[in-house]
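Fold this sequence, please.
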Amino acid sequence: MSSAAGQETRDGVPGRPSATTVGRLVGHRPTALAPRPDRSTAPAAGPAVRPGSPEPLGARPCRGPDGVWGTNFALWAGGAEAVDLCLFDDDGHELRCPLTELTHEVWHGFVPGVLPGRRYGYRVHGRWDPWTGARWNPAKLLLDPYARAVDGDFALPAEVYGHMRDWPQQHVADTVRDDRDSAPYVPKGVVVGDDTADGAPDEWTQDRRPKTPWAESVIYELHVRGFTMRHPGVPPELRGTYAGLAHPAATEHLTRLGVTAVELLPVHQFAHEDHLLRRGLRNYWGYNSIGYFAPHAGYAADGTRGQQVGEFRRMVRALHAAGIEVILDVVYNHTAEANELGPTLSLRGVDNRGYYRLQQDPRRYADFTGCGNTLHVLQPQVLRLITDSLRYWVTEMGVDGFRFDLASALARAAHGVDMLSPFLAVIAQDPVLRRVKLIAEPWDVGSGGYQVGAFPPLWAEWNDRYRDAVRDFWRGALPDARDLGYRLSGSSDLYAWSGRRPYASVNFITAHDGFTLRDLVSYERKHNEANGEGNRDGTPDNRAWNCGAEGETDDPEIRALRRRQLRNLLATLLLSTGVPMLVAGDELGRTQGGNNNAYCQDNETGWLDWSLLDDPGWRALTELTARLIRLRRAHPVLRRPAFFSGLARPPEGLRDLAWFTPHGTEMTASDWYAPTTALGAYLSGRDLPQRDPHGAPVTDDSFLALLHAGPRPLSFTLPGPPWARGYELLLDTSREDQEAPPGTRLAAGAPIELPARSVLLLRALDATDLRQKTE
């Protein structure tokens, strides 16, 4: 029934141009009614396909009923009319095997003789009708969503697009089907064997997961390639690879620092965006996933025919042997297929309407990610894809947790972000996933997407409010002390209400996205010209202070001030309650030249410069970082598993946390609302809310941390009894060497000169400490 000239309401979509209208507009036959290609012109048929099984999904080598080895292939393709399994031999010749068995929308078959190392893909047949969201196109070879390895690189010529990308009438270009074969231009999935099959030894029997408690964790965010590309101790042939990160030269730096976990930027197979390739650049960070089960082949010393799988596993084992957990930064919110003008690589061609959230106009994609599309996590099969992937990386690849990019997009229900969404509910009850570390990036780009503090128990969160408060304090832009007090003490205002603990707050000052720590004190403006986007990319809100000059300078006073500020920032981070996250290279003064969005800088800008350790100043910063981590590990009061109460306890009336003004008096309500450059935090080690493994109460030393962000020295009166009878100076960031003279003691109740822009850490002394010193 026509609603207007040249329009119709067929398929229940009012206002969709009719097939006749499209043909008139583009001079092409009606694409919505395009028939399937004639199979008589297809490549030669492959071996006979047996029925096989719909479970598990993906390609799994196994024995057939007669004992013959082969591979079972299973693909969920809801709404598809037919599926061809495409096998490729060593010469690249394609053999097509129609999968004729269909069980609960899963197309499946067992192919005898297909063994690990064989390359494959799918061609999925169905309607081409973009106005209803149907974008099947059997001319496009598709990557199996469950492929465990990928062989080859993604190039993006016009042939890999399901629509006529170069059609003159751009307003209808994505509605005109492109029937050119994409197989020569896309990588293939690889059949990967199960190492425990048929009695083979389980390579994980010797692996021992560190299982570091949340409260004791120190996370180190790094890029597999960037961390090792310039490392002099890693053999050249291993640099930039999983094997390079597993090399003793790389793990030695991590163990010397004392970090407990590495958080790896995305290692799922990803593709480079077309606009980057056209500018001669590449996606470096990897937030453009296309294979959720496959380790990115470009990070493997041997990334062909599935060898990257074993190399990744060996890397995990090496890190575990060093006492370091492996957390993956995962991107389940969108894929590399982008919006309706993007390439057809996998999910779009398998079932576009099933995998992606579409707008009210089904030709368009809902985009809560800023990357063109959003996975439709409300669909059971999409939810299964994600959870199957997560379990695979835990149980078969050995990882210890995940950081979820734009996690709010995964928590979206039909009408907005919902903390009772199917995704969060499934994770909460899953016997595997609920036991690993789960970290949310608690926002997306959609309306209502900012959800810091809102995720449920089991989840930790990147706490950007910590980042902003600490940056503002040290650049002198914090309006009052309220927010800083909450952030330094574990952010109870954000996490206590839901029953979570201080370790729900992943505290960070820098991350991969934004300035490095050195750039934070060297630049106030972003300098992203090398990205080729006219410096329009990257956030303008950096909350940075360049200490008096933009960029690198020879001025010795500015250089000294910058290094002091770096010491202040690192000390603040590692002495705060919560889980600290460092970014690789911040401890040795890494710079990106002011680029705060180096996502496409797969070069010296994005790689760590290990020669910085030849500079005594940067080497001292590394040593300070390691010393702070050791101090944190040695003192449970610095890594509390429960929030402070702030209540006075008998008999002395001590609080577990007390805040002091420079006058040596406890802060009042009016002090919290007043601008300040200095404050003190007293952390009591008595009666900590935890017990040792034998059930005995845990006690610790008490500490006084003094923070002063002002430009001039300040007199600060040290709290006297009952807080302490004296103090021992442990740390002074105003000193280049940070070492206080041995045995430095300070009198309680007396004023000291607090150096400008400094952090002092003092251990509280009681009568016993003073008596032992005298004796």
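The two ends are 101 Å apart (CA to CA). The longest strand covers residues 69-76.
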